[in-house]
Amino acid sequence: MMTYIVFILSVIFVVSFVGFSSKPSPIYGGLVLIVSGGVGCGIIMNFGGSFLGLMVFLIYLGGMLVVFGYTTAMATEQYPEVWVSNTTVMGVFLLGLLMEVMLVLYVLKSEEVGVVFKFSGVGDWAIYDIGDSGVFSEEIMGVAALYSYGAWVVIVTGWSLFVGVLVILEVTRGD
Amino acid sequence: MNPLIFTTILMTVLLGTMIVMMSSHWLMIWIGFEMNLLAIIPILMKKYNPRTMEASTKYFLTQATASMLLMMAIIINLMHSGQWTIMKVFNPTASIIMTSALAMKLGLTPFHFWVPEVTQGISLTSGLILLTWQKLAPMSILYQISPSINLNILLTMAVLSILVGGWGGLNQTQLRKIMAYSSIAHMGWMTAVLAYNPTLTMLNMLIYIMMTLTMFMLFIHSSSTTTLSLSHTWNKTPLTTTLILITLLSMGGLPPLSGFMPKWMIIQELTKNSSIILPTLMAIMALLNLYFYMRLTYSTSLTMFPSTNNMKMKWQFETKRITLLPPLIVMSSLLLPLTPMLSILD
């Protein structure tokens, strides 16, 4: 099973994405987001990125999703939608599940999957690596690179987040 | 809105477009688009009524979908070329997805449905920013990937946009919807020549922005959003009726005004590339545009539109100061002799 762990985890990832995109109430969306966050963390860890995986748990799940959960709990309705309560939601969920199952069977049957582009196994998603970093792990080098070569990216994303807060405050202020 | 916050948000809109236009990494371009989208939402929602909120939500949803498609195309391009630099897109699938994403951002047919609804729901100044500044960023990306765009898709979208822009604007009396359909048609003209000579796309964009700015400034000056209230400008400032006449005819593409320049150059470039039916069709469909501009000029400047007697005297409020109106009017009508200067756009 360990050889297929990334595959299994990514299937669960896609299924939980289908789960919240079929639009149940946000509380249940948050629930599958937790699952997908945890599973995504597992995928990253299997490629050696323990730091980034723990970052997902701490910041994404433990910070942002907790705040999201609290605000949704404040704004929730009396009978929130579940996947089985509304025919539309259940239909979309089952359709997404069906497509995922068919894709998984296709992948398991044949070597190479050619849906939109050719995909032949996990090797295609290998981390692009320069090769001469034998001692240090690549993900820590990536984080370090973000703050050295990628200073402009840090500035831009930091500014976007700041403006995001301003925009949200402005939009919800009302009159 | 607090002036400091408003300035910050407006500067972020500018910064977003600048980042899109000057980045060499696909991810930065995507970040620039998102920053632009995020920061323009409160500008669209200046007044807090359900109409503006609905318009901003529609704008956000369509543009966010387009950004997602753009990201998908970027990742497929990365898979097939192994690098993140902006140049032509290496995979036909990625190219088609990216063209669709940028067409959604610009408002080309068949993704044009949001343009009239969003433009109608927001104030005139926000509509101005939406129809002029927001077109710069996607057009710059189209310019950069133009060698690899699938010609069939591009020309189909362009011709259909010209048709929809002309035909859809025929039944409108609301000025913002008329400007929205005019924007769809002009985007169609711009993308038609993109694969043949992208410099003309830039020329058309420049002239279009000047003319649209002028039109919106004139509308803001007389605070009119319907044809009926525009027809009362003879009472308020008779001079603007003449200016509306000239600018509208320029938008319709009549010589000797400057709106003729891009259409002439585009038709010339298309015929140089041995396509005759296409520019003929485009020119004929531009007549639909001309018809509703002429209808506006008829009701505004050429006749005194029938109205009840108590509407003939308008309140003389303090005159608004409109930025740069005289130079804009001159530029949007008299630039035709300067056509040889378009070589500076290379």
From TrEMBL, chain A:
What's this protein's name? NADH-ubiquinone oxidoreductase chain 6
Write out the similarity annotation: Belongs to the complex I subunit 6 family.
Catalytic activity, EC: 7.1.1.2
**Keyword annotations from UniProtKB, A to Z:** Electron transport, Membrane, Mitochondrion, NAD, Respiratory chain, Translocase, Transmembrane, Transmembrane helix, Transport, Ubiquinone
| Pfam families noted in UniProt | Oxidored_q3
| GO MF annotation terms | NADH dehydrogenase (ubiquinone) activity
A single GO cellular-component term on record: mitochondrial membrane
From TrEMBL, chain B:
InterPro entries tied to this protein: Complex_I_Subunit_2, NADH_DH_su2_C, NADH_UbQ_OxRdtase_chain2, ND/Mrp_TM
What membrane topology does the UniProt entry give? Multi-pass membrane protein
Domain NADH:quinone oxidoreductase/Mrp antiporter transmembrane: where? 23-285
According to its UniProt record, what is one Pfam family this protein matches?
Answer: Proton_antipo_M
Q: Where in this chain does the record put each NADH dehydrogenase subunit 2 C-terminal domain?
A: 290-342
The primary location reported for this protein is mitochondrion
Gene Ontology cellular-component terms for this entry are: mitochondrial inner membrane
Locate the transmembrane regions by residue number: 26-45, 57-76, 96-115, 151-171, 202-220, 241-261, 276-294, 322-345
Q: Which GO terms describe its molecular function?
A: NADH dehydrogenase (ubiquinone) activity
- The EC code for this enzyme is 7.1.1.2
Q: Name one GO biological process term.
A: mitochondrial electron transport, NADH to ubiquinone
- Which UniProt key words apply to this protein? Electron transport, Membrane, Mitochondrion, Mitochondrion inner membrane, NAD, Respiratory chain, Translocase, Transmembrane, Transmembrane helix, Transport, Ubiquinone
Compartments it resides in: Mitochondrion inner membrane
Enzyme class of the recorded protein, top EC level:
translocase
Function noted in UniProt: Core subunit of the mitochondrial membrane respiratory chain NADH dehydrogenase (Complex I) which catalyzes electron transfer from NADH through the respiratory chain, using ubiquinone as an electron acceptor. Essential for the catalytic activity and assembly of complex I.
The UniProt subunit note reads as follows: Core subunit of respiratory chain NADH dehydrogenase (Complex I) which is composed of 45 different subunits. Interacts with TMEM242.
What is the name of the protein in this document? NADH-ubiquinone oxidoreductase chain 2
Q: Which organism is it from?
A: Equus caballus
Q: Which gene encodes it?
A: ND2
